[in-house]
């Protein structure tokens, strides 16, 4: 009997029970997503349930036309623009705050807890509060103004926590060595600190984009008259009963996977470049 066979015989029944439970959980988690992907390829006369009535890309084509499906193309552009704006702001503020919090200053604890406290506030109340403030100030709400600010209350705390964790493990001896070699503060930041923490910065950007791209509660009362993609999808659930809704789900999922793939590829390229430079004896930055 092989060692693998002996190990299989020694496994208790609880192992197989837990494995079966995990398999059912994965099926429960991804089963509905797979059903949506399949139903999005219905023919022009397709419905919302199985079996499929033909196979085509008709409902994907309908997404870019303002027919029964609404302004999906415009909502998609606004969501991408909003997510890009929020990502840039989240990265800039998180990196600057992470660098600032490396040294204690008066009120640093209070500032940190106030920034993170927004995570426990229900998103709908954040949206309501910001919408009321803009109304009191007689300012128009918009997806690139009030909605971006509302979403920062959601993305920025995650960015801060990531940067604090990354910089908390940062070895300052690299910066000290750069200073000993005559580097200025800017040169030390640009050529030493930022290249080393670059994977963490990419992680902050990934969180910022994905959280903003799918955000509904903090956007519903702050985006003004122009819907973002989550708001447009919500409207479709009440106004449209066609496989176009499934096509939207498929497209948004593909976009999310593309963004995740770009982020992971960037981290892999940075690590490969770093290893190659270490092997040839070049500087880290």
Characterization of this structure:
71% of the residues lie in helices and 0% in strands. It is an all-alpha fold. It is globular and about 70 Å long. The mean pLDDT is 81.
Overview in brief:
This protein is mostly helical and 285 residues long. Helix content is 71%, strand content 0%. The protein has 11 helices and no strands.
Secondary-structure topology with pairs:
Elements: H1 3-10, H2 13-39, H3 58-63, H4 72-100, H5 108-116, H6 123-136, H7 146-168, H8 173-180, H9 185-213, H10 229-239, H11 244-280
Helix pairs in contact: 2-11, 4-7, 4-9, 4-10, 6-7, 7-9, 8-9, 9-11
Features:
285 residues, single chain, MetI-like fold, mainly alpha
Distance between the termini: 54 Å
| Class based on secondary structure composition and strand pairing | mainly alpha
Do you know the CATH topology? MetI-like fold
Helix content: over 70%
Biggest sheet record: none
Domain count: 1
The CATH class assignment is Mainly Alpha
CATH-defined superfamily: MetI-like
Low-pLDDT stretches are none
As a percent range, the share of strand residues is: under 5%
What Rg do the Cα atoms give? Answer: 24 Å
Shape type: globular
CATH architecture tag: Orthogonal Bundle
Mean pLDDT: 81
- The total of beta strands comes to 0
Can you write the helix and strand succession as a string? HHHHHHHHHHH
């Amino acid at each position: 009997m092989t060692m693998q066979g002996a190990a299989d015989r020694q496994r208790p029944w609880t192992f197989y029970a837990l494995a079966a439970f995990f398999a059912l959980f994965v099926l429960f988690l991804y089963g509905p997503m797979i059903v949506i992907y399949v139903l999005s390829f219905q023919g022009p006369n397709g419905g919302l349930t199985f079996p499929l009535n033909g196979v085509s890309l008709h409902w994907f084509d309908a997404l870019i036309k303002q027919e029964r499906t609404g302004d999906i193309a415009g909502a998609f552009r606004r969501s991408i623009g909003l997510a890009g704006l929020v990502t840039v702001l989240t990265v800039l503020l998180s990196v600057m705050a992470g660098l600032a919090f490396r040294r204690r200053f008066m009120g640093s604890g209070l500032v940190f807890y106030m920034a993170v406290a927004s995570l426990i506030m229900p998103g709908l109340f954040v949206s309501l509060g910001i919408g009321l403030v803009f109304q009191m100030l007689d300012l128009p709400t918009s997806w690139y103004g009030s909605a971006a600010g509302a979403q920062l209350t959601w993305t920025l705390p995650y960015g801060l926590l990531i940067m604090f964790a990354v910089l908390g493990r940062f070895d300052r001896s690299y910066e000290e060595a750069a200073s000993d070699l005559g580097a200025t503060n800017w040169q030390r930041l640009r050529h030493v600190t930022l290249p080393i923490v670059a994977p963490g910065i990419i992680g902050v950007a990934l969180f910022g984009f994905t959280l903003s791209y799918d955000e509904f509660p903090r956007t519903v009362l702050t985006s003004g008259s122009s819907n973002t993609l989550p708001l447009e999808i919500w409207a479709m659930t009440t106004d449209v009963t066609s496989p176009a809704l499934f096509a939207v789900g498929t497209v948004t999922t593909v976009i999310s996977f593309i963004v995740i793939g770009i982020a992971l590829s960037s981290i892999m390229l940075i690590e490969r470049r770093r290893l190659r430079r270490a092997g040839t004896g070049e500087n880290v930055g």
